[in-house]
Amino acid sequence: MRLLDALASAFINTFGITQPSEQTRRHASWFILGLLMIALAVVVAVGMVLYHFMHS
Length: 56
What we know:
Largest sheet: none
Structural class: mainly alpha
Organism: Granulicella mallensis (strain ATCC BAA-1857 / DSM 23137 / MP5ACTX8)
Order of helices and strands: HH
Number of strands: 0
Keywords: Membrane, Transmembrane, Transmembrane helix, Ubiquinone
Radius of gyration: 16 Å
Distance between the termini: 42 Å
Low-confidence stretches: none
Helix content: over 70%
Transmembrane segments: 30-53
Shape: elongated
Protein name: NADH/ubiquinone/plastoquinone (Complex I)
């Protein structure tokens, strides 16, 4: 969970967002994790499609 909190803090500080409360920071952490998982799933899916077409 510390890695997730560090990612959220980095995101908040990088974009100059007003520091949220602890509850809001937790929600932001889970939201950022969700976005990262979606991005990873898209990259894996594109890789699988490309692999399939290259080896068919």
